[in-house]
TrEMBL record:
This is DUF4328 domain-containing protein. Pfam families: DUF4328. Residues 96-248 form the DUF4328 domain. The keyword Membrane applies. Keywords: Membrane, Transmembrane, Transmembrane helix. The lineage of its organism: Bacteria, Bacillati, Actinomycetota, Actinomycetes, Kitasatosporales. It comes from the Bacteria. The chain crosses the membrane at residues 56-77, 108-129, 149-165, 186-202, 222-244.
């Protein structure tokens, strides 16, 4: 009995498990041999057909680049704060020193706003892309998905499980999107997730000194902010690579057609 796509009535081909079965049969048009063209992989019914992840993938990459730019700006503001607070901690006085400190505070405020805005915009588009590739993975390999489709979004927000569910889902999608009969290395995904967790835990440590009193404490807090922002940049760069690689894998697998005989 061929698999059903969750939430729909379209049957997946019992032989290739890739395209929709032709009406009244358990095989797709390509496996039936009645047409040289496969059933279009990028259909119009959400949740029942493969849908191109390319547009959302590129939008996600662009917004991740904006996140990197905001983090780089924040690193510069952190260093301004470090220099200004260091000068005060070393005993420098005068109007010039206090102007430098005020400028550093303003730049940190601007950087914080830029980071929050870019992260929000990127998060919305990234989750849309992630849901799209998860839905495609359900068509490529419905039995290989260990988490239900809803966790593609919910897994990022539920406390505790958000420490490993998104990685697990990404690996399932990664494997389902690999070329037929092969398994791509998980090194890139694991490296990205490691840096993501490091940045996640470093952020509260970096901001814990926001109410610090004294120039020396402010200077030390600026160093923690530099570390946190640097981890954010590294995680975002690897996220770009994951998005590009996974988007390309799904596009190439969809355009390659059904699985070779025997799969």
């Amino acid at each position: 009995m061929p698999d059903r796509v969750p939430g729909g009535t379209v049957l997946i081909c019992a032989r290739c498990h890739h395209f929709a079965a032709a009406p009244g049969t358990t095989l797709c048009h390509r496996c039936l041999g009645g047409s040289t063209e496969p059933v279009p992989p990028f259909g119009s019914t959400p949740g029942q057909w493969l849908r191109s992840p390319v547009g959302l993938g590129w939008a996600t990459v662009v917004l991740l680049g904006v996140v990197v730019a905001a983090d780089l700006f924040s690193v510069w503001a952190d260093l301004l704060q470090y220099d200004a607070a260091g000068a005060l901690a070393d005993g420098e006085t005068g109007a010039a020193a206090f102007r430098r400190a005020d400028r550093a505070d303003r730049m940190l405020g601007v950087a914080g706003g830029a980071q929050a805005g870019s992260l929000l915009a990127c998060g919305i588009v990234y989750l849309s892309w992630f849901q799209r590739v998860r839905a495609n993975a359900q068509v490529f390999d419905p039995l290989g998905q260990s988490k239900s489709p809803g966790w593609a979004i919910g897994g990022w927000f539920v406390p505790v499980v958000n420490l490993w569910y998104p990685r697990r889902i990404t690996l399932d999608v990664w494997d389902a999107s690999s070329p037929w009969g092969t398994t791509r290395s998980h090194t890139l995904v694991n490296a990205w997730w490691t840096l993501w967790l490091a940045a996640l835990f470093a952020d509260p440590l970096a901001t814990s000194g926001d109410d610090a009193e004294g120039a020396a404490q402010v200077r030390d807090g600026a160093l923690r902010l530099v570390l946190s922002d640097t981890l954010d940049i590294a995680a975002a760069v690897l996220a770009i690579l994951v998005v590009v690689r996974l988007t390309r894998m799904q596009h190439e697998k969809a355009t390659a057609g059904a699985a070779p005989t025997g799969f």
